[in-house]
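Summary for the steering committee. One of the milestones for this cycle was to obtain a three-dimensional model of the protein with 2'-monophosphoadenosine-5'-diphosphate bound, which we needed before selecting residues for the alanine scan. The sequence and ligand used are listed below.
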Amino acid sequence: MKKFAVIGFPITHSKSPALHNAGFQEFQIEAEFEAIEVPPENLELWIKNEFRPNFQGAAVTIPHKETIGKFLDLESEAASKIGAVNTLYWEKGKLAGTNTDCIGALKALQTRVNPSGKKALILGAGGASRAIIFALCMAQADVFLWNRTKEKAERLAQEFKISHIDLLEKINPEDFDIIINTTSVGLNEMKSVLPASFWSPHHTAFDIVYSPLETQFLRDAQNAGAHVVTGDHMLVHQAVEQFRIWHGVDLDPDVMSEAFFG
Ligand code: ATR
């Protein structure tokens, strides 16, 4: 039986086992997918004594995404540019790490809009923001970054050669096509970084938060007639990409979406 896992600390709310088990059923793959809590101080030994001899792949979540790279044999270009690994897999006998959050975000967005040539405003400069900046640059969008702590936005904008915005109050919302919330504002609270007056039907709004699914950010956008993309799409599409890497097959995202809501 093939073995897969999601590792993090803590790991209680992970949707990964449900999503991947739905895929195993769909393709009748004999495999198991566990959620395993690995404390940071045990990560190196877990990779060496558990993952290497026993596992075909793993999803990696907080707080290991930025630190696991040094225990692997190789890293994809996406993982090294983003500075985070969310997927472990074997490549010709070597333990490799990549990042599927970027393709997950892009595919999620593409359910509503083609970002190529569009002006995209990204709010927030944490780990998720790096994956989304990378994805949107690859898709040839015109990317702008805002962050509460201005210096972080400046640094990140310089690294990825994109523009940064100091004050949201000073911009004309109509100048932007796509607005993405990667901040933790709205996570388990009905608050938004943007005022409701920001939005118009011209916009596509994407929030990576999926608890709740309808955030204040998306509710305001929807009320103004904008297109919206909810956070479950990113989670599902990044998992579909993991499934392709591990099993070499393209899974219908609806199979994982059903498991997400199931
Ligand atoms: P992740 O890795 O999930 O992206 P993170 O690294 O903790 O999360 O980043 C959280 C982001 O939310 C940051 O951009 C943070 O802004 P700062 O860099 O100024 O801390 C942003 N954030 C958190 N609380 C915020 C708030 N009340 N208003 C605006 N931005 C906020």
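Key point for the committee: The chain has two domains: 2-99+234-261, 103-229.
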